[in-house]
Design brief:
Number of helices of chain A: 4
Oligomer: homohexamer
Distance between the termini of chain A: 35 Å
Largest interface: E-F, 47 and 47 residues
Helix content of chain A: 25-40%
Largest sheet of chain A: 5 strands, mixed
Strand content of chain A: 25-35%
Number of strands of chain A: 8
Strand order of the largest sheet of chain A: 1-2-3-8-7
Structural class of chain A: alpha+beta
Chain lengths: 187, 187, 187, 187, 187, 187
């Protein structure tokens, strides 16, 4: 099963963390894993993996953000993007448990017309990597933004993040099992 | 892009439709496709591909159901299950646009504690196949069930189904493109 | 991790057990698994998956055999054959711990010039399947054979089999992790 | 079939040789290949691909080592690690033919409680690469070590290495054929 | 390298030959192989693997045809169709060496507006299979057809077929090597 | 479908263009694409991806060349080389429509014993990339060369290139569909 860890120390996310084995090297967690941490998010164009954002000259900034990083091995990138969309759906569903009404648009989450999230999925030679960030504080964002704390009033970010990582790890496990319990079909 | 088609004729879903090229042979749609139709759903144990249901002796029945069948080629089964979960999330999100509050539990959709859906994903030699069924009428179901019409009051099933197929086809297309617009990462 | 189970009841191995989800349907173990059991082994040509044996008209018979069956999902057949060879190596190594000198020749184990084992790996639509059988009693075998009990004097087959399954499950797990802990290389 | 070559010239192994097309560029052998050579082995932490060793601060040193390098194309990394384990098993079996008793622990070979080998498998964009080194001389090693010559008394390293490469190339070929001679199974 | 064999005995092609291990079982050629033979070709709708032809009610008939069957393992179907197109191109090029002007349209070969060939590629659990047939005699064909002998005057079918099989086996080998001799590219 | 674009501006091809997302970043075409442009071609050894050419010390030069670059995602390199051979066949066939007699030798096109083309296929982390260049002017080439204009007299390079790109995009689409319209085969 995907290992999960909430990192209590603040980490400034600058894009370089979306790198193979960053989790393993920094937190000694080997294999498929998802971690979460809080901190400023400031990704310069030169660090961005989303070429569309580079072309559109849209760097990423958030004064204070909850970031999830997951690395999963032996997976192609299209499947990696599907695993990203699943993470986004699970975040949406966890927010719904808190009573919020959220709209998902691909890998974006929107509350009251304001952007809550950024996300990207990419590939290394041996793995896929996903970053998903949720604003905690919305001020200073380059677009109309919403924040988990500033707009939604969620105070206990650690519990919120841990619930999401747990649900994600369990559903990926469930999906792998779902692929083992059906008979193939013929014509 | 995945082709979509709403089939106006009623079809009784008995499980045999979850078969390679059923869409192509019956509706002359070649390649990746999703179709929807209405009719009774009555899948005997002998026709079920979900071995878990067979072990638990849980045949599927619905007096009147909206069924989606999608066949997609050149995809592994784990990725196929992820594509199933995406379809379930999109159905949930479309119901939310209609104003309903829906809970997703893996590949199950639940309204007010009552089961709205059944779903399975499987593999043939050349493709993955997904069936997702939503009760239109809930009476006679083997479990506490909800229906699109009987409980939720949705009358225009064709529009509802078409919206879902369109959103699904567009998001799969978007996911494929998302895998082409990011630079790989190194260490 | 691959689940392991020693089945105390005798099972006559006739080839039909090398079938997708045989483990799941009979022992309710979902996902990657290896099981072991004892019984007569009598595989008719019509049941054999090894076409080479069919061409050579070599049915398989053993009066009393320890059989391992493993099913593993989301794996190609070449990798499946490599996983078979690993199982054979682990059986050889476990016999060495008991003090025996064993020769491996591909997927055959040989003791004192006599054949101890039969093995085959094949594929279903969703999985690879391996059967490896070790004679417990050698009499009546179609070739010069050795038996775990009749020649080697191993009495506690259950412990012997359980050690092998445990070592195999651990090494497959270790191999999966080994693929997650190395940086890729460039030129 | 995998091409094999024993390189008579000494080569100091510093890790940089575990690089895509190193064999092709240096020895003009195109395609899947395994080569062997002798020389000092001195891999600094900065050159290591095994992140676990880097984390544990365990550089590799051997005063005089027999190194095997193999590059194989169109293979995933998990299968690459399985092909590494096969190489280790074959080395063990060749040593057994010389009359030694060897223990394998994953990708380590141990004689009389002393480590004989180092090994790693990794991936490039187009291939997997494996390095396996066997101490010839054990003095100066960072752990309790055994050497082919210093402890085991094997003088003709070239013959020993050539036997291993030959057996490895033949078994990989045999494994590929084994995947072509079985009928698939259905349920 | 793909093994090649011209079968001197006549074989009536009825579609059932496009089956996994047909080459191995009948001619004892293990692994990737291509064979050629002559005979009547009469494929009923019930035996056809091309569903498009079934839908269009287009059975295949040729009074006397040169048929190629190739089975190749560990290949996906899209790649299998590319390998089919390569075979078609090589047949075209061999005909050009004989001085003929040929047009290729996908997997069809056309001479002077008349159809020379039929072809299909499909998949089994462990392999891809291709049938390509070239009319030797054109009379009795269901469409305007050309024949190697009746229109083009080629008498020595065995030499012609052998040249094609040899060129095909060599180019597949060359393609595999071409994938091993380029460095990967980065951004 | 693969997007196509003829670039009217001259571009000097120096090898650096065979790089992931070069098409997307420069022409804002996302996803599978093929582009064509004219210009001098001057690839130094240090920029070459074909290691065979580097070993043989064969840099590439053409005074004026029509270059095709295609990037296709989610494809392995062996399949990428097959897609390169298809492009070469399509160029040959388009030249035949213009009335020329062309010989293909792997990925080389030859007219009257003179080399018309250069081509290479390689891989990035997320895609395969192909460059195929056709001399427009043959003078100054390092080998006996032919040119589209200087020898063959083709004046309208843009139309010629556009026909090829269109035919290539259509056939790749046709190949993908061909893999969706056949039933799998069993034994």
């Amino acid at each position: 099963m995907i290992k999960t860890k909430y990192i209590d120390n603040e980490i400034k996310y600058i894009g370089s963390q979306l790198s193979p084995h960053w989790i393993y090297k920094n937190f000694n967690i080997m294999g498929d894993a998802i971690v979460a941490f809080c901190g400023e998010c400031d990704v310069k164009l030169s660090e961005m993996v989303d070429i569309e954002d580079v072309i559109n000259n849209e760097p990423i900034y958030s004064k204070y953000m909850l970031s999830f990083i997951t690395e999963q091995f032996n997976v192609g990138l299209t499947e990696g993007v599907l695993r990203q969309r699943l993470l986004i759906s699970i975040i949406k569903e966890n927010l719904e448990k808190y009573g919020f009404k959220i709209t998902r648009n691909g890998d974006d989450l929107i509350v009251d017309g304001k952007k809550l999230s950024v996300s990207i999925a990419t590939k290394s030679i041996t793995s896929i990597l996903i970053h998903t960030g949720l604003n905690i504080l919305s001020e200073g964002a380059p677009v109309k933004a919403s924040g988990l704390k500033s707009e939604l009033g969620i105070e206990d970010i650690k519990t919120f993040a841990t619930e999401i990582m747990q649900a994600y790890a369990e559903e990926i496990q469930d999906i792998k099992l779902a692929a083992t319990k059906v008979r193939g079909v013929y014509e």
